[in-house]
Amino acid sequence: MHTAKELHVIFGTGPVGFSLAEELLARGKQVRLVNRSGKGAVPRGAELVAGDISSLAVARELSEGAAVIYNATHAPYEQWPEVLPRLQENMIESAATHGATLVVIDNLYLYGETHGQPMTEAMAHRATSRKGRLRAELMWGYLQAHQVGKARVVIGRAADFFGPRALNSSLGQYVFPAALSQQPVLVLGNIDLPHSYSYMPDIARSLIILGERNEAHGKEWLLPVAPVISTREVIQLIEQELGYPLHLFSVPSVGFAHEQGIFDQAFAEEYSELFYQYTEPQIVDSSAFEQAFGLHATPLKEALATTICWYQTR
User: Fold this and answer.
1) What is the mean pLDDT of residues 110-119?
2) Which residue ranges make up each domain of the chain?
3) Class at the top of the CATH hierarchy for domain 7-162+197-225+284-297
4) SUPFAM superfamilies recorded for this chain (predicted)?
């Protein structure tokens, strides 16, 4: 186990980076957050540093002294092929230089279309999108660095995010603000299919465990999700919490979303290959993580209540 005042360096100040910092600070850790501008909201007590980590020298310098490095970076879809491999290389090199553990947050794209089969760590990677294939290649590279003894690396895989600060999600800015102002709530694809969602504080807690536990390293883990229900049932839980019915605005396809001005042209072009996620069941089986580390997802009702409260105070 790590000592209390050790340094944890988080690359990326989006919802994952912020939630990680909050959770680490609550545990008495020293936290450095890094983004390009050095500006933005961070939890009180965290250090925020500007740095372009597409430069190896900068990534190395800013991760000096770290016990754990977290890759919580984000880039627009169209920049992925150019940006993500470079960030991967720089993160691995930085972890190797400083003897730090590298924790990487990832998504479900590399599985491709599952036709409703529950996703597990043993499931074959059959990506049906360019982005999924790139994610699979990156994951191989990360785990290979661990395999050959270059750096300690572990990957945590989350489903669609929701929770405080998780705006850019299918269960985010299109749902909660509209629900609170009694406007139509935008929902993607077939909402009567089962769909797993990851609660942001659960993601943060899980990634910290992966950084701490030696037996986690060198593997990919599906992070805890609540027992799966349909998106319609999730909306019904939100209705119960708010005490009134919601009007739904259904988006059957990316083309429709573009026509309605919801997605711009660039995003629609990139996202069309991923929309299968909302036209087939998306079921995550996180039992391996839960059994190994004893952490379970926050019950959905409680997680949604906390999320609604955050949006109300925002």
Assistant:
1) 97
2) 7-162+197-225+284-297
3) alpha beta
4) NAD(P)-binding Rossmann-fold domains (SSF51735)
